[in-house]
Amino acid sequence: MALRKVLLEGDDTLRKKSREVKDFDLRTQELIDDMFDTMREEDGLGLAAPQVGVLKRIFVMEAVEENEATAFINPVLIDEKGEQIGAEGCLSLPGLYGVVSRPEEVRVRAQDISGEEFERTYSGLEARCVCHEIDHLYGILYRDKATGGLHKLDEEEEESPTGDLSREEETSIKAADASV
Length: 180
Ligand SMILES: [Zn+2]
What we know:
Blueprint: H1 26-41, E1 46-48, E2 58-61, E3 70-81, E4 84-88, E5 96-102, E6 105-111, E7 117-123, H2 124-137, E8 147-152, H3 155-159, H4 167-179
């Protein structure tokens, strides 16, 4: 298991555009393995390569319900439907959350580690995660899209692992929403 350092907001790398992946080699596989390890260590739902300092169009997403954990190489949104407005967090902006409008459903096209193209449709939380991670590949942080700015999680919550839409955050966010 190899963990990589997650860059925090303020690091220029997070604001740069990632490049297309052309080599589907061992190095790419190692990067993806490390990204899964790092995402799980940080208790995140997703992680994009620029967050670990690599400007390549790659992100990983944890398994949710019936969907398996997946790595997306050169992902593009090919369709989106509806709208969901909800709270979002990010491993690169720990201890914060903000309310962001995202499509309710997205269809994404990407390549797997063999270079094979695939398409998947996601809704709800996963659709939110896919949009959030693809934004990272363009140097966009959810702060740019949050209406009403970012808010601090409760001090108590800051002690617990937080991250890209981590489950702990989701819980505290729901509580925060209810109190508004
Ligand atoms: Zn993020």
